[in-house]
C-alpha cells in the first residue's frame, strides 16, 4: 500500500544525484575557509601579547555587532579566536546553504511542475519534503563532522571538546534554518519569495544577536546565532544553549508538515495578489518589466542597507576612539589605507564591507536572466513581441545597475546623515555617500562575470556565488590573516579608493568599469549566438 512517505528513499537518491557537485562544493568551501583561517593563526599571532592585543580589538561595539559578544578575551587562545572571529560568519554560511538546498528541492520543484510529475508515480504526499529534510539535515551533520575533524587536526592544536562544541553549534544553526526554509516553502507560492523570506529571517536573527550583544544581551537569546555563540566554545564550553535550537527545529519541522497538508500541490498558503485587470502604461516596456520583477528584492536590500548604514554612522565615533587607544587596531586599519585612527577610515572600511555584501543583490538580480530563461517565460516573450534578446537582457542589466546604486546609496546615505549629525558638517554626509558609491565599479565587475557565465556557460552560472564568497573572505579576513598582496589584489574591491579618508584616484575606477563592460559584452554576445534553453 502507498503511504504518505512512499518513495522517500528514491527521492533521497535523486536529490543526491542532482546535487552531487553542489553539496560537496558547499561543504568543502565552508570547511576549507574556516580550517585554513585557523591554520594561519599560529604564524600570525605566535606571541601571547599579540593575541591579547587582538582581543582588545574585538572588544569595541562595531566589532561586537559584526562578530559576536567576545568570550575568553582575558586569555585569548587560538580556540577563543576561532569562536569569536569566525563563528558568526560560519553560522550564516551554514544557514544559507540549508535555505538554498531546501527551497531548491521543495518549492522550486513545485513551481517548475516537476513535483507534480513525480507525484504521478508511487510517491507519497510527504515524500519529497521528507527526502529534502533528510538530505538537508545529513548535509549539515556531515559538514559539522568534517569541520570538527579539520579543527582538531589544525596547526593551532585546538582541543577535541571545544572543536566538537563549535562544530555542533554551527550545525545547530544550519539545522534550524533547514526547518525554517521548509516552513517558508509551504507559505510562499514562488521559490524566490520562499528564499527571500527565509533569508530575511536569517537577517533578523543576525540583527537580534548584534543588538543583544551590544545591549544587555537579552535579545541575543531570541536568535539561533546567539544560541550558538552562547555555547562559549573553547572557553568554558556549555552544551545546553543548543537545546533551544533542537526544540525550535522540531517545532518548525512539525509546522512544515502540518502546513503541507493544508494546501494544494503547487500552491502556497500566502497567495500572491491578482493585481489589476489591466496593466498600466508604465509596464509597457522591458525595462519596466525588469524593475517590476526585481521590486521585492530591491526594496528588501534597500531597507536592510539603510538601517545598517544608520547603525554604522551612529557607532563610528565610538569605534574610532577605541582604535585610537589600541595599537593592534591601528595596525589593522593602517593596512586598509588612510589615517589609522581616523573615523573616516573606519567608515570607509565598513562601506567597503557593505559593498561586498551588497554585491549579493546585484548577482541575485542578474541571475533573474537565467531564471526567466530556465522557467520557460523568456521564449514566449521573445516570440510574441517585437523584442530582441539583447534588448531584453539589457533591460534587466539597466535595472540591476540602477538598483545597485540605490542599495549602496542607501547604506552611504544612512551612515552619512547620522555621521554628519555628530560632526555638524553637511559635507560629511556627502563624503560618506561618495565613499559607498565609489565601490560600484567593483560590484559591477562581479555582475559582469555573472553575465558572462549566463551567455557563455549558463550551466555554470552558480560559480558567481563562489566568486562572491572569495571576495568577501578576502575583504573581511585578508588584513587579519596578513595575506600576500597579490592574493588580496584578486578582489576588485581591493582597487577601489577607500573613501572617505583616502585620496581619490580615477585610474582604478576606469579600469574596473572597462573590465565590467568587457565582461557584459562577452556575455551578451554569447547569449545572442546560443539557443534559448
TrEMBL record:
Superkingdom of the organism of origin: Bacteria
Keyword set includes Transmembrane helix: yes
Residue stretches spanning the membrane: 21-45, 86-106, 127-152, 164-185, 197-219, 239-259, 297-316, 347-369, 397-420, 432-456, 463-484, 504-527
Keywords: Membrane, Transmembrane, Transmembrane helix
Presence of the UniProt keyword tRNA-binding in the record: no
Protein name in UniProt: ABC-2 type transport system permease protein
Species name: Halopolyspora algeriensis
Amino acid at each position: 500500500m502507498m503511504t504518505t512517505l512512499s518513495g522517500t528513499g528514491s527521492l533521497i537518491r535523486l536529490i543526491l544525484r542532482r546535487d552531487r557537485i553542489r553539496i560537496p562544493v558547499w561543504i568543502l568551501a565552508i570547511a576549507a575557509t574556516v580550517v585554513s583561517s585557523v591554520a594561519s593563526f599560529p604564524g600570525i599571532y605566535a606571541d601571547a601579547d599579540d593575541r591579547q592585543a587582538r582581543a582588545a580589538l574585538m572588544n569595541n561595539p562595531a566589532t561586537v555587532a559584526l562578530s559576536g559578544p567576545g568570550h575568553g578575551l582575558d586569555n585569548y587562545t587560538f580556540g577563543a579566536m576561532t569562536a569569536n572571529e569566525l563563528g558568526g560568519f560560519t553560522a550564516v554560511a551554514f544557514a544559507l546553504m540549508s535555505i538554498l538546498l531546501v527551497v531548491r528541492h521543495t518549492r522550486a520543484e513545485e513551481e517548475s511542475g516537476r513535483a507534480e510529475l513525480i507525484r504521478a508515480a508511487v510517491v507519497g504526499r510527504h515524500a519529497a519534503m521528507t527526502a529534502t529534510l533528510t538530505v538537508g539535515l545529513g548535509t549539515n551533520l556531515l559538514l559539522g563532522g568534517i569541520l570538527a575533524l579539520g579543527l582538531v587536526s589544525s596547526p593551532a592544536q585546538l582541543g577535541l571538546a571545544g572543536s566538537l562544541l563549535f562544530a555542533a553549534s554551527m550545525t545547530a544553526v544550519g539545522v534550524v534554518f533547514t526547518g525554517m526554509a521548509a516552513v517558508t516553502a509551504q507559505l510562499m507560492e514562488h521559490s524566490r519569495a520562499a528564499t527571500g523570506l527565509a533569508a530575511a529571517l536569517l537577517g533578523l536573527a543576525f540583527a537580534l544577536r548584534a543588538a543583544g550583544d551590544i545591549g544587555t544581551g537579552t535579545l541575543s537569546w531570541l536568535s539561533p546565532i546567539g544560541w550558538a555563540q552562547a555555547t562559549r566554545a573553547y572557553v568554558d564550553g556549555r552544551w545546553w544553549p543548543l537545546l533551544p535550537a533542537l526544540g525550535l527545529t522540531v517545532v518548525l519541522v512539525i509546522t512544515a508538515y502540518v502546513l503541507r497538508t493544508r494546501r494544494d500541490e503547487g500552491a502556497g498558503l500566502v497567495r500572491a495578489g491578482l493585481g489589476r485587470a489591466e496593466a498600466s502604461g508604465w509596464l509597457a516596456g522591458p525595462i519596466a518589466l525588469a524593475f517590476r520583477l526585481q521590486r521585492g528584492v530591491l526594496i528588501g536590500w534597500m531597507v536592510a542597507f539603510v538601517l545598517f548604514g544608520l547603525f554604522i554612522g551612529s557607532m563610528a565615533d565610538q569605534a574610532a576612539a577605541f582604535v585610537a587607544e589600541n595599537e593592534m587596531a591601528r595596525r589593522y586599519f593602517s593596512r586598509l589605507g588612510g589615517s589609522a585612527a581616523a573615523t573616516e577610515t573606519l567608515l570607509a572600511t565598513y562601506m567597503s564591507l557593505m559593498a561586498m555584501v551588497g554585491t549579493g543583490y546585484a548577482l541575485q538580480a542578474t541571475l533573474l536572466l537565467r531564471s526567466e530563461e530556465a522557467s520557460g517565460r523568456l521564449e514566449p516573450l521573445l516570440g510574441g513581441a517585437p523584442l530582441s534578446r539583447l534588448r531584453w537582457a539589457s533591460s534587466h542589466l539597466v535595472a540591476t545597475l540602477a538598483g545597485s546604486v540605490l542599495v549602496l546609496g542607501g547604506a552611504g546615505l544612512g551612515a552619512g546623515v547620522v555621521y554628519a549629525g555628530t560632526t555638524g558638517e553637511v559635507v560629511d554626509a556627502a563624503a560618506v555617500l561618495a565613499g559607498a558609491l565609489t565601490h560600484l565599479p567593483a560590484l559591477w565587475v562581479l555582475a559582469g562575470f555573472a553575465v558572462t557565465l549566463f551567455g557563455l556557460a549558463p550551466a555554470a552560472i552558480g560559480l558567481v556565488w563562489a566568486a562572491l564568497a572569495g571576495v568577501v573572505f578576502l575583504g573581511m579576513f585578508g588584513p587579519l590573516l596578513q595575506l600576500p598582496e597579490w592574493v588580496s589584489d584578486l578582489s576588485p574591491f581591493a582597487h577601489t579608493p577607500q573613501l572617505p579618508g583616502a585620496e581619490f584616484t580615477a585610474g582604478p575606477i576606469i579600469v574596473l568599469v572597462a573590465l565590467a563592460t568587457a565582461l557584459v559584452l562577452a556575455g551578451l554576445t554569447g547569449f545572442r549566438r546560443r539557443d534559448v534553453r
